[in-house]
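@channel sequence for tomorrow's demo:
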Amino acid sequence: MKYNWKKIGIGSVDTLGIQFQKTVRLNNQRKYSTRRRYLSAQVRFIKFVGGEFKLQKLVNLQDKHLFAYVDYLKSRDCTDSYIKTELSAIQFMHNNLDGVKHTLLSPAVFNLIIL
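structure tokens (generated this afternoon):
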């Protein structure tokens, strides 16, 4: 799938975006419509994490980032199904990264904790 990160002018977010662009290019799993939906969710998450935590590498993603993102989505009154889809997209991205430093909680356990 082709994807080009459009720079937004925030250094940490753009750094994550370029890393994300490389992982998307190598991914051919799932239906095209699912990949498009997940792509938009992953971009939203990258913008959130880059702005809130100043994360420099996607391989350093941890559960605390997901918990903060869920709290942010809940503060915006997002539905539980929307939040689950967002988390699935993030988990999918994390599973496709090489050299991750932290394993994330399984989606089933994570859903029990937050929802």
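heads up for whoever presents: Residues 71 and 77 are 10 Å apart (CA to CA).
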